[in-house]
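User: Hey, my collaborator sent me this sequence without any context and asked if I could get a structure. I don't really work with proteins. Can you help?
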Amino acid sequence: MIFEIFNNLRRRFGLFIILLFIIIFSLLSINYYNNYKEKELENFEKILTNIYFQKSVKSTIENLEPRYIEINYDVVKGDSFNKIIGNIKLPLKERKKLLNIITKKKNFYKLNEGQTLKFTIDKKSSEKIIKFSFPINKTKEVIFTRNEKNSFDYKEIEKNLKKQLTYKESIITNSLYSSAMNNKISPNIIIDFARIYGFQVDFQRDIWKNDSFQIIYENYLNKKNEVVDTGNILYANLILQGKELPLYFFKTKKFTDHFDENGQSIKKTLMKTPINGARLSSSFGMRKHPILGFNKMHQGTDFAAPKGTPIMASGDGKIIKAGWCGGGGNCVKIRHNSNYSTVYAHMSKFGRGIKKNVRVKQGQIIGYVGSTGMSTGPHLHYEVIFNGKKVNSQKLKLPSGRLLKGKNRENFEIVKIKTNVLKSKLILNSN
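Assistant: No problem. I've predicted the 3D structure and written it out in structure-token form, which is a compact way to encode the shape of the chain:
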């Protein structure tokens, strides 16, 4: 009996001793781990606060960032080198240095709209200009490169581009844009084609199925005979319901334009429509407001188009507003002259360089179709203001453009004959 009691106590206390050992061991292990982690954290904090470590990290991060940045600037009407370089955020000393060198070159006095100036800037060297390039024409470019003397070396580079005259003709099956694209015509040329006819043709209502077009334009090819750029449209002919509307490119020292067979410029104060590939979704006049639900005067014209469709300035002018216009969303307002202003509303975004006080050229892209503000879908709301009063853009009668006379008319007739001969040759070569 006594032996059994002893064995039971031994077994019970033996188990107790084992459990007690396990508990003590666990507590000691946890305490050791905590002390170890605390020391580790202390060492890590010492590393982080070490000045040499901090300098190393800073240097590594800086090296990850691009040292050189590229800035492209598209020239608009009214620009000068002084104005352009002044807009670039650089130290005054840098701007003066570059301007002094540029003004020594006579061929730099004239800037042309559409040209792109390129600046390469070193952010690590007090934001110095490393390189500046400027296209003189389609085939020649001027490059300024900073030298060891902290000045600039100047050289002209031939782009080795070959000009090619291209003839295309096509029946319009769906839209001008889609038919032109199917014929592998550059989008730049399509936009320019639509722009020059935009004064007399409404591409949403005047184009019928099986109408057609003819076009002669300049392509610029590289050494691999790849098209890298486009030039002028030398001839265009839009055939609408059998009626031909031929236009000829004519250039003098004072002006460049497209003229009809009678020497009449097709250019007017405003284009008929500032957007292509769109449909007229709401006319000028009284209508039931699609959001407010009551009858209200609609003081503009709506063109429905996919989001992102380019919107053009309907005429030369100065931007007086580029920003949020309440119910109009993102909008642009342009003053063309003392009589005419235009408004473009509900844009998804603005075109490059479009801001207040910037001068724009007729046909220049100022923004893209969107549905901002009070809108039920992507479209352009377009307004024309004449002498302070909003008018119907679709019924607006604008004065005709320049009529060639005298010597200019004689020279134009020669250009017209040469262009017609060229057209015949290109048609024969294409067959």
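In plain terms: The first strand starts at residue 68 and ends at 74. You can pass these tokens on to your collaborator as they are.
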